[in-house]
Amino acid sequence: MVRLASAFVAGVVFGAGLSVAAMIDPAKVLSFLDVAAVGRGGWDPSLALVMASALALTAAGYSLVRRRKAPVLAAGFALPSATAVDRRLVAGALLFGIGWGLAGLCPGPAVAGLSLGSGKTWLFVAAMLGGMAAHRLLRRR
Question: What is the C-alpha to C-alpha distance for residues 52 and 100, in angstroms, rounded to an integer?
């Protein structure tokens, strides 16, 4: 029960951080991604600070993780072991980037944004879940 509660609290904190950073607002994200608007004054660089902060926090977290033998609430760490850059990885990264650029949402902010009740966000999450289900079905074949 402690693991479930800690996962819930971590999710709430993550969602709150996305909300405070305005990453659940597709217009804000799209104005960051529109680098062509730099000369027109329409580019919003503020999300770069959010990303830089997240990168710094992640680097610090991994530094701490490497010093421990096991996590506090689990028997062992579940760190990524894959190092190959293959066709599936590149294709997935391209699809993620294209989707993010078109919709202004990615999975985490989309789920956090459901609380706002936007029909577009609900549609995005439904399409995302449908895509995940389709991928699972195709992968089994």
Answer: 18
Q: What is the pLDDT of residues 95-138, one digit of tens each?
A: 888 888 888 888 888 998 898 888 999 999 999 999 999 989 99
Instruction: Name residues whose C-beta falls within 8 Å of residue 73's C-beta, 6 or more positions apart in sequence.
Output: 2, 3, 6
At 1-11, the pLDDT tens digits run 888 999 999 99
End-to-end CA distance of the chain: 36
Reading phi first (left if > 0) and then psi (alpha if -120 to 50, else beta), residue 101 is in alpha
Separation of alpha carbons 23 and 117, rounded Å: 15
- Contact status, residue 31 vs residue 44, Cβ threshold 8 Å: yes
